[in-house]
Amino acid sequence: MLLALGMLAMATAAAQDPDPVMARIDEAYATAQAAVKQNAQSEGDMTTTIHYYVPGHGRTTETMKFYCRTVRGNYLVTDEDMDPHFHYYPLYFVTRDYNIGKQKYHEEFLYDTTTERPIFALTQEYDDQGKRVERRFYFQDSNVYAMLGPAPTSRTDMQVYYWAEELKHGFDDLMRNPKE
What we know:
single chain; alpha+beta; seven-stranded antiparallel β-sheet; two-stranded antiparallel ribbon; 9 strands; 40% strand; globular
């Protein structure tokens, strides 16, 4: 009996230990949230608003906010390029809000500050019954590591990663981020 109680205590303690990958990403998310609040008072973000029509649902407004840092660097100077300096804007966080009909959607994407690859996504959307649901996706090595919330369709998890990558590429194209 004492052995069983000891094993139960160890199992309970192990269950309470946070997953190290998810804990690291949660800490990065909290840091990004603090930086977003700070950026609201200074430059370091870009907002893009798009209006379009969704057949059967009407007009849609989509607003994306891109949060980045500024890094100065140098190009290799060539005969065609007389300016050896550039600014690079590493993306670390994106929010996306849009509607389809009367339903409002919200998404957040967090990027690793070193690799700029997606490490987290939060989606607020609707299930098949029209109930608003929230899902949290944790990524590691370009794959879904964990997902919290109602089970998505089988392809939703990789679609979320794809959307995060596409937003990053779109931001880089808009900012003309140089590649070294």
